[in-house]
Amino acid sequence: MWLEDDEIQAYLDSGNPGKISQAIEAIRTRQDAGDSLSIKPLTAEPLRAFDGEFPSGMLEYYLDFLIGQDGVPSLPEADNWHEVAKALSLYLGTHGAYDVALRIKTDDNGPALVSTILGAAQQRLADLPEKRCFVLGYFLDCLMDGEVPIREAVVAALDRWPTHPNARRAVDEIVDRLDEARQARWSK
C-alpha cells in the first residue's frame, strides 16, 4: 500500500487499529522502495489502539521503525528505547514482550539496553494495572533466558527497583532465578 506522508501521519494519529496497520504497511512499502518519509518521529502511543492484540507482523515492523531504521523518522536512540519501555509497560502483550526481549538479547549493547528499558519501566511500575505487571514479569523472564551479561544487567536493574506491590508482582515471575539474598528482598 502506498500512502503519502500526510496520509501516513493522519492514519497513525487516527486511533483506529486498521488505519494504523495500513500506515505501518505504507511505511514499510516506502522504506522498501528507498523512499524517505517526512512524518513525526514514531512513539509508542499509536499502539494503544490495539489493546495488546496486533495483526500478524505489524508489531515487529512497528518496533523496527520505533527503534530506528533508515528513512523512517525516529527519536534519538535512548528516547526510542524509552518509548519501547512505555509500549512494554502499557500496550504490549506477552508476544510483544518476547519480541522486545529477543531484540535486546541479540543487540551488541544489550546490557545497556536492559538498564535503559528497566529503568524506564520502573518509573511506571507504581501506576500499572495488575495485568500489566504480569507482562513486565514475563519480559523479565525472557531476559533472564539471555547470556550472563544480560542476566547480570537484569539483576542490577532490579536491585535499583523499589519493592512496592507492583514491582513484587513483576519480579515474582523470576524470583526463583535470583540468589537467596535477592529472593529474601522480594519476598518481604
CA radius of gyration is 17 Å
Number of β-strand runs: 0
Rounded mean pLDDT is: 91
- Measured between the Cα atoms of the first and last residue, the distance is 54 Å
Strand content: under 5%
Give the number of helices.
10
Oligomer: single chain
Largest sheet: none
Give a written overview of the molecule.
With 188 residues, this protein is mainly alpha-helical. It has helices at residues 5-13, 17-32, 58-67, 77-90, 94-105, 110-124, 130-144, 148-160, 165-171, 180-187. Helix 1 (5-13) runs antiparallel to helix 2 and helix 7 (130-144) packs across helix 9. The N and C termini lie far apart (54 Å).
Which secondary structure elements does this structure contain, and how are they paired or packed?
Blueprint: H1 5-13, H2 17-32, H3 58-67, H4 77-90, H5 94-105, H6 110-124, H7 130-144, H8 148-160, H9 165-171, H10 180-187
Helix pairs in contact: 1-2, 4-6, 5-7, 6-8, 7-9
